[in-house]
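During the no-cost extension, the postdoctoral fellow (Dr. R.K.) reprocessed legacy sequence entries with the updated structure-token encoder. One reprocessed record is reproduced below for audit purposes.
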Amino acid sequence: MSEITKSYEAREIEQKWYAAWQAAGVFAGKVEPGKEPYTIVIPPPNVTGVLTMGHVLNNTLQDVLIRRARLEGKSALWIPGTDHAGIATQTVVERQLRKEKKTRHDFGREKFIEKVWDWRHEKGGIILEQLRRLGASCDWDRTHFTMDEGYSRAVLGVFVDLFKKGFIYRGKRMVNWCPVSQTALSDEEVIMKPTKGFIYQVRYERTDAPGEYITVKTTRPETIPGDLAIAVHPEDPRYAGIIGKTVRRPLGPTAEIPIIADAAVDKEFGSGALKITPAHDKVDFEIGQRHGLPPIDVLNADGTLNELAGPELAGMERFAGRKRAAELLKESGALIEAEAYENNVGYSERADVPIEPRLTWQWWLKYPRVEEAKAAVRDGHIQFHPERWSKVYLHWLNNLQDWCISRQLWWGHRIPVWYRKGLDVEKLTEAELADPEKLHVSLEGPSDPENWVQEVDVLDTWASSWLWPFATLGWPDENAMKAAGFDQFYPTTTLVTGPDIIFFWVARMIMGGLEFPRPGEPLERRIPFKHVYFTGIIRDGQGRKMSKSLGNSPDPLDLIAKYGADGLRFGIISIAPQGQDIRFQEDRIEGGKNFCNKLWNACRFRQMSGPMGDNSSLPAIMARLKADQFDADDHAILDRLLATTREVDRCFAQFEFSAAVQALYGFFWNDFCDWYVEVSKAKLQDEATKENCLALQDLVLRQTLLLLHPFIPFITEELWQLLGYTGAGRFIEDSRLQNASQVATAGHDLGLVIDQAAAQSVEKLKAFVSLARTLKAERGLASRRDTRFLLKADDSQWEAVTINLAKITRLVGAEEIVRQDSVDGAPAVVTPLGTLALDLAANLDVGAEKERLAKELESLAKHIAGTEARLANKAFTDKAPPAVVEGAKKQLADQQAKRAELERLLQALS
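Re-encoded structure tokens follow.
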């Protein structure tokens, strides 16, 4: 057994153990009949991606869950992979080509796709390598990519299947359009930004009453040539007599357009009149559909104005066209005013330009299994954590719109549709689209390909990733499913993701899972996962979301280099309470490193304190304990160990990872290191008590390392080995994590039963010491060891102090503690063992002491009010276990007694 070195060298140990784990196949998900499965599929990062703080949090939590599952003896599998990220990847490669003064069209589709594959092979695995640095224990032999051959067959097969079932159709509808990438975008790919510009007040002359006008406001005067009507609210009295009349369009080709009534118009905005441009606004399109207005599209795909905009604007870039349109309106007298204006404008996430609402032919999907998808969450088959997200999910499902699944890109899954050569695709009717002589849809393609032309569009990236939970397990190929252990690992267990993609990914995966892998089976066997944990968004100190553009996000690899992977993991989880956004604080990451150092030093102290006994298993350590030698501190640390184990178990069951970390921190730092190790030093000097003390430390450290391992795997593995806990296994994850009752039972079998009264007496001593230290620190005496304390205590309290007097004075750093009948006039604090005061003679600042006591009373009053409210709540008193209710009553009595003593102390100073 090697010696634990003086300092923990994170980088060296991380590299050593990650290589060892991989070489030994520790991460491999194995089909093990009889074992409970636990499966996670990684939310596949974009193949273009690099590690961000969001990835750190998300993947650390997944790793925590999968490592915990292994320690619990489950058949655990974490499937990794990457998403081909259609538009993001194509944008990256096209950007490289622009540096060579070339475009994809210079190469043609096939050659360009070859270039994308070359880029993917060279750069596409970067983020997965970075996840290894973090300690992610994925089964890397199962790494998937959404453009892999098998996965692609699943994606295209689903398109064919849904088309044949009538869920997929081709239609001309409004989409988000990027004029740079020249493709439709999902809402998720559009970023709303506040944008400064102008709002233009324009007048339209009535044709039935020359010289009279209707005034509208618009931010887009360049689209006026596409206006087809002026809409007003049917109940707006200002326009009651002129609905049905016409006005003259003030820009572009001359035309008279009708005044129509529609309830969608906001009477309160501007003049209450709205120009209707169906080709360039979603609301206008819907109004136009209701009134039979055929759209006029005045923009080209690249955002330039076309000939329908009129000769003065045709060929102009859209923003230059906007400026010119305003000038033309001013020259004609139609522009009343141009007012500075700021509004939210949608930008293409990749191209960073304003998107255009645009009417285009696209492929659309009507969602399958919608009602079952609602029931899956509503009835608890799938549980959301926090639960409040289920309401958001159900609201979206109740307001579904068909999904635009086509993209005008080259990189991606090319849609398996072929058109008969010679047809004008843009003019095909719905009937013709159903004619197999004109449209062919299949996985293999037509038997006479020379007579057909394949669809040029590819599928939306989300139209491949919605199959992720089951396509990564070999579906639909039966041989691949068997090899992957589909029946063992599906449904998966837990999905960890962000709430920002609850619609784009989570909801769609649920519908896909219900539709495809196990048709006809009960709902609970078709769901893709049983739990969904939604992380918060990581923000900077100002509350802004971390992003590259703001430059407010640290590089996770720099943090790993500075604090170690374990320090980063422990720190980030400690500031990530369930369901809340996270304010990033680097000092908390440093705190994670400090905790690792504390753990290292405590284990080193144990190794230096005496010979290591048989640590090969829990029973072996238990056998070394001597129940008859247990003192109150021994009972207390074992009681706290079991309580902490129970709390961590509860936290995992409730997905409260931050609370688990805090519980472990508090136990190890405060209960074990600051108290038990300190009080053990005297026992380690006595040969009669040393062996038992060391055995108990070994038990505590063993259980603590097991509890901590999912959070900080590298240091716990190293210490597990150095303290001789390996036993028959090779690694810590070869062992089993016992719950509190299992540890207690092992003790009972050896005659060891925790003395609760003794354990509680130690808790009082801890509180006494803590309050005494605080009293010293408040007066700048923290480091002084010549402090004299006065204690007003009853006989039982004083007996507890005198029994432990040497220990208490050493831990407090006091010269002596003297019993007094009164401590009035001295700075004092109420402890479980009496009222403790500092003997400062005439040096007391009465005003400051009164202020301190008043603040303490104010704080205590809030606690008392909370406890009283709890006991007044009938739901609590009727449903909580009697012991819990009695505990709350005792807590209230103690609080009230403390208040009375504080009030007395305050009165004595008056």
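DSSP finds 31 helices and 29 strands in the chain. The chain has a mean pLDDT of 93. The remaining legacy entries will be reprocessed before the final report is submitted.
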